[in-house]
Amino acid sequence: MKYLETYSNDPEYNLAFEEYCFRHLPLENDEYFFLWQNGPAVIIGKNQNAYQEVNDDYVCEHNLKVVRRITGGGAVYHDLGNLNFSFVTKTKENQTIDFKRYYIPIINALEKIGVKAELSGRNDVTIDGQKCIGASQSVWQGRVLSNGCILFDVRLEELSKALNVRKEKLESKGVKSVRARVTNIKPHLKRDISVADFKAELLKAIFELEGKKPVEYKLSEAELAGVKKIYTERFSLKEWNYGASPKAEYSHYERFPIGSVEVFFNVVNAKIADLKIHGDFFGTKDVTEIEKLLEGCEYEKSAVSAKIAETDLKPYFGALEPSEFVEMFFK
Please, are residues 288 and 311 in contact by the beta-carbon 8 Å criterion? Predict the structure, then answer.
């Protein structure tokens, strides 16, 4: 495994860098790991509705960037007290979303530094029941991108103000506020270290677990040009980061063990039209394929059920029952 450096704190550039590495770096002989930091920003999941997840007034007033990543999951607040990690690896046979494989090295490395953390829920790491790491993942053409954010010394009050968190999500965690649900790692350390020192120690510990020393892979000029192209064509654009706010006559939100799912749609001439599916679920396939599948479908439960029976929902949402999904259109 080689390590990478983005040499940037710009969230739009860093996410372009991550996508380029995920899709283009050679994986024949090596896999990759990197730790990176963003300036103040809100990073939203691939399938989320930015207009619902972000406190837009606060974001504008404080000049925070809003950037959409290419992995699923929920919205997170980043600042320079936050340390992000990314693994770019080859898939195993029949690869599905699997957080444990990538969390265990992080948890073991934290333990070497002096922090006792544990896996919790579908994609969290906690200390004494409070979330300190959240992760997301994407699987594409034999490759896995597993990324996450480590709350080291984040301004937690800013986090709670920048995000709009549905009360249903908080209730599912048994807490009353997002601030009560999360914790920084720094207060749990037995010594006072900076985020830069923490980054260096974590990087060293990750590679020590493999019996190796970190060796950096530096992107070539051509590879860096590829990063810039993705930045220019996607992550620097509001069209990508915010997307269009769904304009629909009908909508329904439901929280499942696999995460939240929300459908927005119109009914035109007794047929489903303009369907958009949002949420913080994880999948290996693009949910726009389900939107296209149901476009023009008769707005009757039997017709929608028949359409959904044509495909396997698990690659799109995880373990979501077809009947549960169909029911969302008729509540």
Answer: no
- Tokens, residue 255: 């929280």
pLDDT in tens, 26-66: 998 899 999 999 999 999 999 999 999 999 999 999 999 99
C-alpha distance from residue 114 to each of 4, 185, 193, 195 (Å)? 25, 10, 12, 15
Render pLDDT for 169-203 as a digit per residue (tens, 0 to 9): 434 444 334 545 899 999 999 889 999 999 999 99
pTM: 0.91
Q: Distances in Å between the alpha carbon of 309 and those of 22, 112, 301, 321, 325?
A: 32, 48, 12, 11, 11
331 closest CA partner among 323, 317, 191, 48? 323
3-state secondary structure of 105: helix
Q: Which stretches within the chain are classed as H helix?
A: 11-24, 50-53, 56-61, 100-113, 156-162, 167-173, 178-181, 195-208, 221-230, 238-241, 288-294, 301-308, 314-317, 322-327
Residues of the chain with pLDDT under 50: 169-177, 179
Asked if 83 contacts 34 with a C-beta cutoff of 8 angstroms, the reply is no
CA dist 275 and 259 (Å) reads 19
For every residue of 5-39, DSSP letters joined together read ------HHHHHHHHHHHHHHS--SS--EEEEE--S
